[in-house]
Specification:
The chain is an alpha/beta fold. The protein is built from 7 helices and 21 strands. The protein is elongated. The structure holds flavin-adenine dinucleotide.
């Protein structure tokens, strides 16, 4: 196990609320590390609607999900928060000395004074193929991500899905696999039109195939994938021989490990008070879509406010008795120093 990273606060989730939490903590002189299971920061804004316009961020008449994220990253730059992406926070444990041991799926360990859960609707997980025979093949013959395309050399590969991941991997694996067949339930693709055109061009050259239909079953013998049954629009079921299947049906959020940390949950949200945004465990706070309280609205601007109040509460929790005056960023020399604009 690695040496723990010592920090004031660990923030679980790099969505808009987790990112702005870095800013509010930074203004009060607190150092944070942010962890997200996704490979890029931005939470739902980047994962679900990077190009869609948002109109209700105060003083920003319009910006896209990606632009909002870029601006938040720019705004928190002065505070030098550690960003740990592509890893899920799996464990949060209060230790005897009152500090928290936080562990991620990549075996990163933190020793933190406080924890802010900004996990939104949970961590995004690949949507699974839910047909008879699929679950048993997972990991060996049925995959939801590709680590090394060379692993598919000389294999007959079936790719399921119609988005960019499915298309990109089909185009990549053509150069590695013995054969590539892409199966999508509709003739219309969600992915980039240029990729669709490339795929059809490869089909015309007999280097790949495209099948429109719905997967009904995976057939295996002694745990080894043999074929996948695909029902076409003509309702005929065709069996396609395959050594390996790759499914790219997008990501869906699961509250995941957050549910196992002893937090008081209501449905899939964490109960907090509206003074400190603290959970039932002292020292663990929750902001953004993941929390609930009377009158809660799942809006970005509400999460920003929650982060500001949580930061003051955390300051008091970590440095009890020390008076914290409200200071304006406009006029406070201390704020200017922390922001690096002095
Ligand atoms: P999220 O954005 O959900 O981010 C949470 C992050 O935490 C995720 O990246 C997740 O991977 C990570 N995470 C969770 N669990 C773990 C774990 N255990 N370990 C590591 N990482 C973890 N709101 C508005 O105010 N205005 C709008 O116009 C608007 N439009 C929207 C349009 C759409 C299509 C959608 C879906 C939402 C929209 N929203 C809008 C809602 C807004 O996106 C959310 O309120 C906001 O994203 C919540 O931010 P968050 O930081 O709390 O959580």
């Amino acid at each position: 196990e690695r040496h723990p990273i010592h920090t004031d606060v660990v923030i679980v989730g790099a969505g808009p609320c987790g990112l702005f939490q870095v800013f509010e903590l930074g203004l009060l002189g607190l150092k944070a590390h942010v962890v997200d299971s996704l490979k890029a920061p931005g939470g739902q804004c980047v994962e679900l609607y990077p190009d869609k316009p948002i109109y209700d961020i105060p003083a920003v008449p319009v910006c896209t999900g990606q632009e909002l994220t870029d601006r938040l990253l720019e705004q928190i730059k002065p505070f030098g928060a550690g960003l740990h992406l592509g890893q899920e926070v799996t464990q949060v444990e209060r230790q005897e000395n009152g500090r928290f041991r936080v562990v991620t799926s990549a075996a990163t360990v933190f020793d933190a004074g406080a924890v802010v859960v900004a996990g939104g609707v949970g961590s995004f997980q690949p949507r699974r193929l839910d047909v008879p025979g699929a679950a048993e093949l997972e990991g060996k013959y049925l995959h939801y991500r590709v680590k090394d395309p060379r692993a598919f050399a000389d294999q007959d590969v079936l790719i399921l899905g119609g988005g960019d991941s499915a298309l990109d991997w089909a185009l990549t694996l053509v150069d590695h696999a013995r054969s590539v067949v892409l199966v999508h339930r509709r003739p219309e693709f969600r992915g980039a039109p240029a990729s669709v055109a490339k795929l059809y061009a490869l089909r015309d050259e007999h280097r790949a195939d495209v099948l429109i239909g719905t997967v009904k079953e995976c057939t295996h013998v002694d745990g080894v994938l043999k074929s996948v049954s695909v029902q076409g629009g003509d309702s005929v079921v065709r069996r396609v021989d395959a050594d390996q299947a790759l499914a790219f049906f997008g990501l869906s959020p699961k509250l995941g490990p957050i549910a196992e940390w002893g937090l008081d949950l209501q449905k899939k949200q964490i109960n907090v008070d509206t003074e400190k945004f603290q959970t039932n465990i002292p020292g663990i706070y929750a902001v953004g879509d993941v929390n609930t309280y009377p009158g809660k609205k799942k809006l970005i601007l509400s999460g920003f406010h929650e982060g500001a109040l949580a930061a003051f509460a955390i300051k008091e929790y970590l440095e009890p008795g020390k008076k914290v005056h409200l200071q304006y960023t406009t006029t406070s020399p201390l704020m200017h120093k922390r922001l690096g604009v002095a």
